[in-house]
Amino acid sequence: MNETTALLNIGSLVTNDPELGEGLLGLITDAALVIEEGRVSWVGRSSDVTPTTAVIDLEGRAVLPGFVDSHAHLMFAGDRADEFAARMSGERYAAGGIRRTVAATRAATDEQLAENLWRLAAELRRSGVTTFETKSGYGLTTIDEARALGIASSVTQETTYLGAHVVPAEFEGRPDDYVELVAGAMLDSCAPHSKWIDVFCDRGAFDVDQARTVLLAGVAAGLVPRLHANQLQHGGGVQLAVEVDAASADHCTYLDDLDIEALAASNTVATLLPGAEFSTRSPYPDARRLLDAGATIALATDCNPGSSYTTSMSLMIAIAVRDMRMTPDEAAWSATLGGAKALRRSDIGRLSVGSRADIVSLNAPSHIHLAYRPGVDLIHRVWQAPLTPKVAA
Ligand SMILES: [Zn+2]
Predict the structure, then answer these.
(1) What residue stretches are annotated with the Amidohydrolase-related domain (predicted)?
(2) 8 CA to middle of ligand 1, Å?
(3) How far is the CA of 276 from the centre of ligand 1 (A)?
(4) I need a labelling partner for 234 at 20 to 30 A (CA). Which of 4, 52, 114, 342 fits?
């Protein structure tokens, strides 16, 4: 899409720029959008657009910024369908199940890992995701973590080093020795392929002091922190995320008033992952309380083979609206600009002049249908600017 292209006859356009249109989403009806060299060059009413050579008639469809999936675990092999079936029969989810995927991932070839990643990346794109983050965390040796991140960095710039996912079996009873490796030699090998550093700070994984050690080592190596926090029980993870100025505290299922106040007063986005609660039949996070306190929320898939094996941002939006009391506008915002903020990106998640031309059209007249028509694939078309745009921001 290098020539100038005009998208015309857009029924409703989510710009996420309140200066361009109505409300939180900056909504424009009967809208048009012009794209040049992978960037948005004009946004407005269809009646005001200057005719260009290439024209696409959207015939009244809704258009949004491409979804930004700011939390996924795509570097793995195998699946755990049997574990899901057992859990749905009454067993409780515990973090230890990750070790099964670790064994399968270590046994996989580079080609198998890459093919699984490409398959999931293609699924994400078909479901309207134009930017996704992915973590390591199923290798848990220096060589396996570094190879996962090397492969991941060939398809996304949003790569996260998650050596501190769980303590691997060979370090059973010696978690501090493993933390030393994660914050030392493993970090040295992984940092060149990573933008972010993350820790699973929760029951059955790493405590707050261990998580702080890993995150600060990552910061010293030039990575930016994000954190799995407060998914399985209340703990100090969210406070740690705010303390280290993490871009995002992810899950946020068990929060007290102090956690909510801390998030609202910080630059740390609360990334909610309702696919995990859905697939583990757990209580959803209290999105309404977070929003009412002034916190910023991102919605993401948490795509992983254990607790949330979905690539559907539309499903996340539907759950957020139905069960987490977010409005359809808030959920659409959190799945686009909220995700961009969780990745500290200003070039995606919105459709205003200069934004990347990452665009989704729906087989529906408005974004409300994403929640109103749950389980229906409404994605009409996905436009994605090249990974390295020709025109600088
Ligand atoms: Zn996760």
Answers:
(1) 245-364
(2) 38
(3) 9
(4) 342
